[in-house]
Amino acid sequence: MTSTDPAADAPFDHLHLNGQPVAYQVEGARTASADEGVLLDQAIDLTARAPWAEAGYAVVPGLPTPVQEQLQAGLADLLREALREAGCAVAPDFDVRQYHHAVADDSARHLAVIAQTKAYPLARLPIAPALLENLVGAACGQPVRAYNPNVQEAVFHLRIVRPQRADHNPLHRDAWLPRYHDALNIYLPVAGSTARSSLTLVPGSHHWPENAVERTAEGAIYHGVPYTVPGVLRPARPLSIIRPNPGPDEVLVFSPYLLHGAAANLNDDATRISLEMRFWQA
């Protein structure tokens, strides 16, 4: 949890996470905004009534233990199903933290899994969506629903980040994409989420003006991998990047207007799997 304040002409090619430098290589058409406006000021701010509004995130107690465990087990089953569809013969009790061994160095197989897990219809969630809607609504102090009115869509995502691989996206705001305006995010650990692998974010950055960072104009290329979201090329102020690291019985709730991402998995031998979902005002 350190910060970096690069000089204007210095290369910005790494971040510090847990005191360890992590490579950070972003490519894309450059945009350096002079806009002093704050995106969140033009949005429905679902953090506004929360006691954690200033930070933009909170780690909150999860669902009742049997329900949270049912959710995590069901999501692990979805990943095993995706592995089988991609040609990996995994057992019903396969430890999904060992995902990186199952796909080995087969990039095509890994991408075949990602094609399945990047968006599921809400009907495939292993528990009733209302349980998570109620949890998030209680955390932010207003009713929410897992339905995106911007694109008329109700989905959830499994994020898979292998150890020591560039599977994580660059630093970004989800809200740089209009379809994620007015939302609230959750990160729920499924497996392999630790103080060395969990989501990273920059507290309070949802209140930063747009000219606080230089970013790509379109989707970034991060360590050679194209992403749909623009990525930070260079900050104009110091970054204090942290891993809130929710436990298996907790949920991280955070604003999509926060800078987050670049969550390198520094585990020695465990893939990190998490549930990611977004919610909008009910």
In short:
With 282 residues, the protein is an alpha+beta fold.
Structure overview:
It is a single chain. The protein is an alpha+beta fold and 282 residues long. It has one domain (15-63, 127-153, 160-281). Helices cover 17% and strands 24% of the residues. It has helices spanning 65-85, 99-103, 107-117, 129-140; strands at residues 3-4, 14-17, 20-23, 26-27, 30-32, 57-61, 120-121, 144-145, 155-161, 184-191, 213-216, 221-222, 225-226, 232-235, 239-240, 250-254, 272-281. Strands 6, 7, 8, 9, 10, 16 and 17 form a 7-stranded antiparallel beta sheet that branches. Strands 4-12-13 form a 3-stranded antiparallel beta sheet, with no helix packed on it. A hairpin with a 2-residue loop joins strand 2 and strand 3. Mean pLDDT is 90; it is low at 1-11.
Features:
282 residues; alpha+beta; seven-stranded antiparallel beta sheet; three-stranded antiparallel beta sheet; 4 helices; 17 strands
Rg, rounded, reads 18 Å
Structural class: alpha+beta
- Give start-end ranges of low-pLDDT stretches: 1-11
State mean pLDDT (0 to 100 scale): 90
Q: How many helical stretches?
A: 4
Work out the count of structural domains.
Answer: 1
